[in-house]
Specification:
mainly alpha, 90% helix, 3 helices
Length: 146
């Protein structure tokens, strides 16, 4: 023999309308979406708590939510500052590299100019020395001939 509750439930099932079925389906979908959102938030919070525990050395403690959020915001700001600093250092290094390259090119040009200049002077002096050497040889021959 069935109790009154089972009888009532069977009568309710027979009277279910398509609207009720649609409404139940919508509620189930909403529930699944809320559960997925909760799971996402829960996992993110667990990662944040683990980070907090590692950074603070308080492996057995959990921060309250406000403290965790403040800590996360401070960590975020610190990381942003580190990134900005690294970017500035990279820009300075790039600028220094470009200046060094320009200086090297300028220095190379100066060396080329100096080599040409001294080369021209050396050629001039070499020619003068050769003339002097020829004159000395001629004088020597004249002295030897006399």
């Amino acid at each position: 023999m069935s109790n009154w509750f089972d009888l009532w439930r069977e009568s309710e099932r027979e009277e279910e309308s398509p609207q009720a079925v649609d409404e139940v389906q919508k509620i189930k979908e909403d529930l699944e979406e809320l559960q997925a959102t909760f799971n996402l938030i829960w996992k993110a919070q667990q990662r944040a708590i683990q980070m907090w525990q590692q950074k603070t050395g308080q492996g057995l403690n959990w921060p309250d939510k406000a403290s965790l959020i403040v800590w996360l915001m401070e960590e975020n700001e610190s990381l942003r500052e580190q990134c900005q600093s690294a970017l500035q250092r990279a820009q300075v290094a790039e600028s220094y590299h470009e200046e060094t390259k320009k200086e090297a090119v300028h220095e190379k040009d100066m060396r080329i100019r100096l080599v040409k200049e001294y080369g021209d002077k050396a050629a001039h002096w070499k020619a003068e020395w050769l003339k002097e050497a020829k004159r000395c040889q001629e004088l020597e021959r004249k002295l030897n001939d006399n």
